[in-house]
Amino acid sequence: MTSTLATHLASTWPGVAQVCRLTRQRELHGKQSIETVYAITSLTAAEATPARLLALARAHWGIENRLHYVRDVAWGEDQGRTRGGAAPQVLAALRNTALTLIRRRGFTPAEAFDHFSAYRHKAINAVRQARTE
Known about the structure:
The longest helix is centred in the middle third of the chain and has 25 residues, at 50-74. A two-stranded antiparallel ribbon has the order 1-2. 55% of the residues lie in helices and 17% in strands. It has a domain at 1-47. The mean pLDDT is 82. The chain contains five helices and two strands, in the order αββαααα.
């Protein structure tokens, strides 16, 4: 199935080398759910075995869970009303920078909010410090 579908897609979408199907099972609050998703890649079967494709998919979700989930929950980014011009991108960059500074100091976002709200001068000093790398 994979090679046939990839060949069919490649005729209209150059660069498609493989198509894979991922079936995910999870349990949340005692309920089981099954989800099937498809992915396309320009990596050939020689470059990406099924195990590597699975690792790449998991790495993608690791980014989603580590960054986007934190931005949505900690900063309420999805509820933001800033929509015009470059402002959403600027705010996202500032949030990413803050998250990097927080993690480099060994805090979780929740710990950092508590700590820096009590010691605001430390937040300012954290931003002023030169890179250590």
